[in-house]
Design a protein that fits this description.
It is a multi-pass membrane protein. There is one protein chain. The protein has 441 residues and is mostly helical. It folds into 3 domains: 4-120, MgtE N-terminal fold (Alpha Horseshoe); 137-244, CBS-domain, CATH 3.10.580; 288-439, SLC41 divalent cation transporters, integral membrane domain (Tetracycline Repressor, domain 2). The protein is 64% helix and 6% strand. The chain has a 3-stranded mixed beta sheet. A 3-stranded mixed beta sheet has the order 4-5-6. Strand 2 (162-166) and strand 3 (172-177) form a beta hairpin. The radius of gyration is 29 Å and the shape is globular. It starts with a helix and ends with a helix.
């Protein structure tokens, strides 16, 4: 897709179409995302209706909105009308209110009702991203009757590979796979094939939790029901993957000490990137004042044994790295449901042992190196400090994300940068305390 930029700037529609027609929709979407909005709109308008819809649904909501801004109202209406309801709701949920209202007003009554229903669920919930277009199979039907339902309604559904099974009141009893229906005898009752243990979630449940449940249970689609177990829709695997990708992107940003942002990295404005990072850098800068205060407190010790200053970068760097490793492991374990707040004592004990083991290994290495540079006395201080700092840093790094979750804060927010800053200051306290104890300074 490297040639797309040059072809668009030459305004060569035939060459652009030749290039785009041979590429998968996701590659075309990525190519459009790399163009300026005006150029992307020009190239997008060259695509035929079906191809345009396929590419449009692969774009991020930010780029979808940019394209819509450059299209006529009738073109916008036709394009959005053909979108799947969950994709449409995802786009409009991130659009400005005026844009969302204008787009909704141009939809047919049925599509508008489905989209409005999805937008009515809380942001981040399963209801926002589920598809209401499903094929439900009556539990009292036979395989022949069930397949007839699939043939009659399947064209309008997002997926037919996982079929909800319902009773007369539309209450969900389980699921049956299309594979089982096709392979079963025609007169087999659906009731004999239904998986009554199929997982299900409420529409107001957290979307990320539901997506991870799909991964754990190896599901292509997950049942979404209301408080009375009536069928509302399905969370499909493609939407689950997008949820997890967005969650991982957000966690990665927060773990690096930045606010999450959306859009193509290469074409996000520099000022916007700086704005997402500035706040946390300022917070960490203020937190780092603790380190300066600790150095002031132990200024006399440094004057008496100046060699202690040589190892400050080594010790605070090692402590910060040990804490960041533990924090990253804890955030990941929390995200996938392996660790809960009730596990805090076990996590503390586990990470304390890991930290002490690492500290012992590094302390032995530090003792040898420091002895050759400054003598055995200070080398012993460095070695003991490494053991203590690694144990402390690993414990703090694993504990802070769990405590943050308990307080309703995203665990990723208090991960690597925050842990590193805290360990820097407390690590110096440990270092100079050990020096006073062993050297008497």
């Amino acid at each position: 897709m490297e040639r797309l930029h040059d072809l668009v700037h030459r305004h060569d529609p035939i060459a652009v179409l030749d290039l785009l027609d041979d590429r998968p929709a996701h590659e075309v979407a990525d190519g459009l995302a790399r163009l300026e909005p005006v150029d992307a709109g020009w190239a997008f308008r060259l695509l035929d209706k079906d191809r345009a819809l396929e590419v449009f649904e692969e774009l991020d909501p930010v780029h979808q909105q940019e394209l819509l801004a450059g299209l006529r109202d009738d073109a916008v209406g036709a394009l959005v009308e053909e979108m799947d309801p969950d994709d449409r709701a995802r786009m409009l949920g991130e659009a400005p209110a005026k844009v969302a209202t204008r787009v909704l007003a141009g939809l047919s009554a049925g599509e508008r009702a489905m989209t409005a229903a999805l937008l009515g669920y809380p942001d981040g919930s399963v209801g926002r991203v589920m598809t209401p277009e499903t094929v439900a199979v009556p539990v009292h039907s036979s395989v022949t009757e069930a397949l007839a339902v699939v043939r009659r309604k399947g064209a309008d559904a997002e997926t037919v590979y996982t079929l909800p099974v319902t009773d007369a009141g539309r209450r969900v009893l389980g699921t049956v796979s299309l594979r089982d229906l096709v392979l079963a005898r025609p007169d087999t009752p659906v009731a004999d094939l239904v998986d009554r243990a199929a997982p299900r979630v409420r529409a107001v449940d957290d979307g990320e939790t539901a997506a991870r449940l799909m991964g754990e249970a190896n599901l292509l689609a997950l049942l979404v029901v209301d408080s009375e177990d009536r069928l509302l829709g399905l969370l499909t695997i493609d939407d689950a993957v997008e949820i997890l990708e967005a969650a991982d992107t957000e966690d990665a940003a927060r773990q690096s000490g930045a606010a999450p942002w959306s859009g193509h990295y290469m074409y996000v404005k520099v000022t916007r990137l700086a704005r997402t990072r500035a706040l946390w850098l300022a917070v960490l800068l203020l937190a780092a004042v603790l380190t300066v205060n600790v150095l002031q407190i132990f200024e006399d010790s440094l004057e008496q044994v100046t060699a202690l200053a040589l190892f400050i970068p080594l010790l605070v760097g090692t402590g910060g790295n040990a804490g960041a490793q533990a924090a990253s492991a804890a955030v990941r374990a929390i995200a996938v449901g392996e660790v809960r707040l009730a596990d805090l004592p076990a996590v503390v004990w586990r990470e304390l042992r890991v930290g002490l083991l690492l500290g012992t290994l590094l302390g032995g290495l530090g003792l040898v190196v420091a002895s050759a540079l400054v003598g055995v006395q200070i080398a012993t201080v460095v070695a003991v400090t490494l053991v203590a700092i690694c144990g402390w840093a690993a414990t703090v790094g694993a504990t802070m994300p769990l405590l943050a979750r308990r307080l309703g804060i995203d665990p990723a927010v208090v991960s690597a940068p925050m842990v590193t800053t805290l360990v820097d200051a407390t690590g110096l306290l440990i270092y100079f305390s050990v020096a006073r104890l062993l050297l008497g300074v």
